[in-house]
Amino acid sequence: MKTLFTGDGLLGYVDGSIKPPEKFALNERGEPTTELSQGYRLWHRYDAGVKAVINATLSSSALPHIIGSDSIDVYMGKIEEIRTKLGLGFSVTVYDAEMIAQALRGLPDEYEAFRNSITARNEPLQSTEFHVLLRAEESSILAGNQ
């Protein structure tokens, strides 16, 4: 996340180095009014957006607890939702390779063989191909557990 926020110039909203500008607009005499300044409105928008993305993002250590009760489709849906929020809200591009790496980190231990086979591949995967393979692995694991 730090790399993404740094690349888009948003890290200052996270670490506090981008301070809010004056909250209220000034009148022609230089006195504060009750109207929010344009700079403050913009700062508040980005600050709230960064907070929303952080709150929506789960750490790698938390992801196995989520996937443990969700299907692969739900799990991948959550990851795609975060990817979309980063793209639309902050113009952050999360490439397929980055998304797949994060998804692999969040899988529980029973997906270790799958994780190893995906990371050992020479050819890059598209997210849709990865989702299909992951769904097949889920079916295989579920069949083996029954």
List the topology elements.
Elements: H1 2-7, H2 11-15, E1 24-26, E2 32-36, H3 38-56, H4 63-67, H5 72-90, H6 96-105, H7 112-119, H8 127-145
Antiparallel strand pairs: 1-2
- Trace the largest sheet across and list its strands: 1-2
Into which percent range does the helicity of residues fall? 55-70%
Uncertain regions spanning at least 5 consecutive residues = none
Percent of residues in beta strands: 5-15%
Largest sheet: 2 strands, antiparallel
Order of helices and strands: HHEEHHHHHH
> Shape, please?
elongated
- Rounded to the nearest angstrom, the radius of gyration is 21 Å
Give the total of domains: 2
Mean pLDDT: 84
Q: How many angstroms separate the termini? A: 38 Å
Q: What structural class should be given to the helix and strand makeup?
A: mainly alpha
The count of strands amounts to: 2
Number of discrete helical segments: 8
Tell me about this structure.
With 146 residues, the protein is mostly helical. It folds into two domains: 1-56, no CATH class; 59-146, no CATH class. 62% of the residues lie in helices and 5% in strands. The protein has helices at residues 2-7, 11-15, 38-56, 63-67, 72-90, 96-105, 112-119, 127-145; strands at residues 24-26, 32-36. It has a two-stranded antiparallel sheet. The longest helix is centred in the first third of the chain and has 19 residues, at 38-56. The chain is elongated. The chain starts with a helix and ends with a helix.
